[in-house]
Amino acid sequence: MSWPLTVLLLSLADPLPGGLAGPASLSASPPVGGAGAWLAQKPAGALAPSLQGKPVVADIYASWCPACRTIAPTLRSLEKSQAGKATFVTFDVSDAARLKASRERARALGLGAFLEANRSQTSLVAVLDPRSGTSVQTFRASADAGAYVAAIGKAQAMIRR
């Protein structure tokens, strides 16, 4: 059977279990937010009580990741300017010990599923609704402070409803 070239090329990006290439899946999750970031969209349920009332900005960080180092100043600045308006949480996945500590923290905050779904996506930042744990918007390697502020504002409006 002959496959069209487009299907064969797409199949390389969507491997089947066991490393076998197959036709591209049309059921793959679409990119969410900016920069083509991927995020598990299955609602995780309400986040920890300590995270309720404000949007949660969750960052997947690794010290060896150049993009993480690039966006870190933007996130630190946002954490100061958005103090009281959003809760910032960073999960460090730099090495096994830090990943273990991040997993424990994520589970305690109700973000265990989020971290497991995205731990390999360094420089991913998601603005989450704390009531449901779902993503309002995700970013990948974005230093656009205005876009983060807009997403936080959108999440705040959702929370007030």
Give structural attributes.
2 domains, disordered N terminus, Glutaredoxin, 161 residues, alpha+beta
Describe the protein's architecture and organization.
The protein has 2 domains: 1-28, no CATH class; 49-160, 3-Layer(aba) Sandwich (Glutaredoxin). The chain contains 5 helices and 4 strands, in the order αβαβααββα. It starts with a helix and ends with a helix. It has helices at 5-13, 66-81, 96-109, 112-118, 145-160, and strands at residues 56-61, 87-92, 124-128, 135-140. It has 161 residues and is α+β, with helices and mostly antiparallel strands. Helix content is 39%, strand content 14%. The chain is globular. Strands 2-1-3-4 form a 4-stranded mixed beta sheet.
Fraction of residues in helix: 25-40%
Strand order of the largest sheet: 2-1-3-4
CATH class of the largest domain: Alpha Beta
- Shape verdict: globular
Query: What's the CATH H-level homologous superfamily of the largest domain?
Result: Glutaredoxin
Report the radius of gyration as a whole number of Å.
17 Å
Intertermini distance? 54 Å
